[in-house]
Write a structure and sequence with these properties.
Blueprint (H helix, E strand, L loop, with lengths): L1 E3 L8 E2 L1 H8 L13 E5 L6 E5 L5 E3 L3 H25 L16 H6 L19 E2 L16 E3 L5 E3 L6 H8 L10 H24 L5 H7 L12 H4 L18 H15 L5 H8 L8 E5 L7 H6 L1 H4 L4 E5 L7 H14 L4 E3 L7 H14 L5 E3 L10 H10 L5 E3 L8 H10 L7 E3 L9 H12 L5 E3 L6 H12 L8 E3 L7 H10 L8 E3 L6 H14 L5 E3 L7 H13 L5 E3 L7 H13 L5 E3 L7 H9 L7 E2 L1
Parallel strand pairs: 9-10, 10-11, 11-12, 12-13, 13-14, 14-15, 15-16, 16-17, 17-18, 18-19, 19-20, 20-21
Antiparallel strand pairs: 1-5, 2-6, 3-4, 7-8
Helix pairs in contact: 12-13, 13-14, 14-15, 15-16, 16-17, 17-18, 18-19, 19-20, 20-21, 21-22
């Protein structure tokens, strides 16, 4: 189709033939069509002005399907070019937040070739189209029809307020020819323009190429405002915390009795006669009463709830809940009350085998939160794997608990590991009783040794009736060497120790400076073990009480003990009961006591044949009164 009109090059997209024609034009080629449009830049406004050229030529309009295919290919190539320029940081070739192709119609118009003197040239379906975006270069290439400027941050921005402005400028240009394009061409161009604008808007919604309008909005101040209320309006109200002892003000014994009975009636449970009797014996309600004794009573959940009427009005030194058949619900309720009302300084929950995980969790919360609880007796109350973590966390930060009894609590294994790890950081616990827990000589003993290496606050460690063995004693003694000022009493009664373990203990005794009581009773120490232990005892300067009851000693062993007595200027008590010490051993002990002026008590088996020896020992004390059994 031949059309004579003026065509406007908006997007500055040239084919290779156009570029060659432009730069090869000379004054001798008269029929060559001059440039269709020139991009004029106003120095004041920095905006591009399109000046139409009056020229009437005949153009060939290719098929729209071919042009649309070329438009899609050129779009992909232009996008790739801009992505490469953006990565390389080329400010002249990249326009931030500016659409790459404003209107595919520009490609249709720019693909139309000029007609020279020789006639009509066919459009080249060349996919390698050079697209130049940016300022004019030295080669004379023109900018695209979107003005670029630098914002305050130095980023290139498009000054056009609408990404359709390029198409509007092209359509607003008046053709120099008076002939109108055919109707079908105008309709085709309109359809292509609509398709292009739809694709451009979809692309902008996805966010790949933000519109110029969005770029302009970034520099505009937002209409949103943030306001804060005045100081007096920030806090609308406050609630005072509950006073746990508001019911204890000016309370009387009659009020306590009445409240307890009403609570039992409301909860549909029986009153406990033992409790009623103790309430009637209350005298001074302004101070802690001595004891609330519930030992042996069967306390279910309702009975525990009714006790709150007492605990909210009276505080105690001791609350005895031994063997009260507590379950999870009852134990949780009671421990919460004791924590909230600071009801006791000494709490006995021993022989309650069914308090469960929730009961131990409440007990741990009580241990952690209360500031009055100093003594907790949990003998024969199993502390299993799923409950031990709660108690361990409580012991790590407990601020008041000083005495903890956990005898026969099934601690061997993971529970002991958790407790020992937590107690390394505990600064308040002074007495720890771990008897009858079947602690072994490997993992359990290693945990105890590590505990003694790091904790210098525990003064009494009772490990009686376990299975420490000689191998476990080696771990314990490694920790004992670090006890320069800490452990005072170590009880190893009945732990299946032999003479081999006494070597570890003899090596640790000279290092410790705080140990005063060492109980090795009911172990197979024997005469050889005492000989090994003797040197460590003599080198030690702190041991005051030594227990060797039922350690299978004979006269030979008694002689070794006598040598220690003679060398020790501070020994106060020696227990040698249940041994096979005969006359020769007793004579050696009596001679040692003649030079020892410190021993106050010597425990021996009373037999008629030893009575004279005992008198001799008593006379050898230098006139000081001794208590010799």
């Amino acid at each position: 189709m031949n059309i004579e009109e003026q065509c406007l090059d908006v997007c500055n997209v040239k084919t290779k033939s156009n570029v060659d024609d432009e730069f090869n034009t000379t004054s001798n080629t008269e029929g060559v069509t001059p440039r269709i449009s020139e991009l004029m830049t106003d120095s004041d406004t920095k905006k591009h002005t399109i000046v139409p050229t009056e020229a009437t030529e005949t153009f060939v309009m290719p098929q729209l399907t071919d042009n649309l295919q070329a438009v899609e290919e050129n779009n992909h190539q232009v996008q790739n070019t801009l992505e490469i320029d953006e990565v390389n940081g080329n400010g002249k070739n990249t326009a931030k937040d500016t659409p790459v192709i404003a209107n595919p119609t520009s490609f249709i118009l720019s693909d139309v070739q000029h007609i020279g003197d020789t006639g009509v040239e066919k459009m080249k379906e060349d996919k390698d189209i050079n697209v130049v975006v940016g300022e004019r270069g030295d080669s004379g290439d023109m900018d695209i029809g979107v003005a670029l400027s630098l914002d305050e941050t130095g980023v290139l921005e498009a000054e056009s307020s609408n990404n359709r402005s390029l198409l509007d400028n092209a359509l607003d240009s008046e053709p120099s020819s008076q002939e109108d394009p055919p109707a079908n061409l105008a309709e085709s161009l309109s359809d292509v323009s609509q398709v292009s604008s739809t694709e451009a808007s979809a692309t902008n919604q996805v966010g790949l190429y933000p519109s110029v309008e969005e770029g302009d909005n970034k520099n505009k101040q937002s209409g949103k405002k943030v306001t804060f209320p005045s100081d007096e309006d920030i806090v609308s109200g406050a609630v005072e915390p509950k006073d746990p002892w508001r019911h204890a003000l000016n309370v009387t014994v009659e009020e306590i009795l009445s409240s307890y009975k009403q609570a039992c009636q409301k909860l549909n449970c029986k009153t406990i006669p033992k409790v009623l009797k103790q309430i009637q014996e209350f005298k001074d309600l302004t101070q802690r009463n001595e004891c609330l004794d519930l030992k042996g009573e069967k306390l279910d959940y309702k009975a525990c709830e009714s006790l709150e009427e007492i605990l909210k009005r009276v505080q105690f030194k001791v609350i005895d809940l031994e063997q009260t058949n507590l379950d999870e619900d009852g134990a949780s309720a009671l421990f919460d009350m004791i924590e909230y009302y600071e009801s006791a300084t000494h709490l006995n929950i021993s022989f309650n085998k069914h308090i469960g995980t929730r009961g131990w969790q409440a007990a741990a919360h009580m241990m952690r939160k209360t500031s009055s609880l100093q003594y907790l007796d949990a003998r024969n109350t199993p502390l299993l794997d799923h409950s031990a973590p709660f108690v361990a966390r409580a012991l790590r930060i407990s601020g008041s608990l000083a005495v903890l009894h956990l005898e026969n609590a099934s601690l061997s294994g993971r529970p002991l590991m958790l407790l020992a790890t937590a107690l390394k950081m505990n600064m308040n616990l002074r007495e720890l009783y771990l008897a009858d827990n079947k602690l072994n000589g490997l993992q359990d003993s290693a945990q105890l040794g590590n505990l003694l290496k790091f904790n210098y606050n525990i003064q009494i460690l009772d490990l009686r009736n376990n299975h420490i063995l000689d191998s476990g004693l080696a771990y314990v003694c490694e920790g004992l060497k670090e006890q320069r000022k800490g452990l005072v009493t170590l009880v190893l009664w009945n732990n299946q120790l032999t003479h081999n373990g006494m070597g570890y203990l003899a090596a640790a005794l000279p290092c410790t400076q705080s140990l005063e009581t060492l109980n090795l009773g009911h172990n197979s120490v024997g005469n050889e073990g005492v000989h090994r232990l003797k040197d460590g005892l003599i080198a030690n300067r702190s041991v005051l009480r030594l227990g060797l009851a039922s350690t299978k000693l004979s006269c030979e062993g008694a002689v070794a003990v006598a040598e220690f007595i003679a060398e020790s200027p501070r020994l106060l008590r020696l227990d040698l009961r249940e041994n096979e010490i005969k006359t020769g051993g007793l004579m050696a002990l009596s001679l040692a006591l003649k030079v020892n002026n410190s021993l106050l008590r010597l425990d021996l088996d009373r037999e008629p044949k030893k009575e004279a020896v005992s008198i001799e020992i008593r006379r050898g004390t230098g006139g000081k009164e001794r208590d010799i059994d």
